[in-house]
Design a protein that fits this description.
7 strands; 7-stranded antiparallel sheet; 241 residues; single chain; globular
């Protein structure tokens, strides 16, 4: 996933006018996507850097997360992981995450998404999705096309996919993305990890990692916001006397 900045509807400083709020959201997404596009103009010499720590170290799975015995690329220089608890039924969260073609309806940075095969999502399924990257002083505006293949899937438990992201002037050779879902008191804990590999992004590991982290945190935020707004989630919440 590529970088975006989540909105904060509970912040009283946000515009109350819906059109203004959408404009603020769009501007934030565009600004953060520029971080990803800047990767196309990074220096050609790879920089040594340690993999980034997750946003919440206490929630780290210490690289032990797996789906069907498989995980992200253990040798990748660019990696990030994060967690969130969503107050919604597991079936609701799972449905949102695996209904790929509906991603654009709740994730502003995903402009298109399509399945490349028929039937229920499963190991071997492929899907293609796009996200814009605006122009920078060193790169033209482009659209990144990501073609993902599901490597592992355990219903209501985990999903692992991988694939390249390619745009004019910007390329990630392979992203490997893992999601796990666990029932906890009050909802579902969603854990995500992703790694990137490729000469271009590895030329500036800190910048690439920052872009990756912003994208994953925003994805979790959008998933939580959407899932908790569903009728099933509202009905599952305890009512005050």
């Amino acid at each position: 996933m590529f970088s975006t900045v989540p909105s904060n509807p509970s912040n009283p400083s946000n515009p109350s006018n819906p059109s203004n709020a959408r404009g603020t959201r769009k501007a934030a997404v565009t600004l953060a996507l520029a971080v990803t596009a800047v990767l196309a103009g990074t220096i050609p010499t790879a920089q040594a850097a340690k993999p980034a720590k997750p946003a919440d170290p206490a929630a780290s799975h210490a690289g032990t997360s797996r789906c069907g015995g498989r995980g992200v690329d253990s040798d990748a220089l660019i990696r990030y992981e994060s967690d969130i608890v969503i107050k919604a039924p597991l079936a609701t969260v799972w449905k949102l995450q695996t209904d790929v073609e509906r991603w654009p309806s709740w994730q502003p940075p995903v402009t298109t998404a399509e399945r490349l095969d028929l039937g229920r999502l499963k190991a071997g399924s492929r899907f293609r999705w796009t996200t814009p990257a605006p122009a920078t002083p060193t790169t033209p505006a482009t659209t990144l096309t990501i073609t993902s293949t599901v490597q592992e899937l355990r219903r209501h438990n985990c999903i692992l996919w991988s694939g390249p992201a390619i745009g004019e002037g910007l390329r990630i050779d392979e992203g490997v993305h893992l999601w796990t879902f666990r029932k906890v008191k009050g909802g579902v804990r969603v854990h995500t990890e992703e790694t990137w590999t490729g000469d271009q992004v590895e030329a500036d590991v800190p910048t690439a990692t920052a872009a990756l982290g912003a994208g994953l945190d925003a994805w979790l935020h959008d998933l939580k916001t959407t899932a908790e707004a569903t009728p099933a989630a509202r009905a599952a919440q305890p009512r005050l006397p």
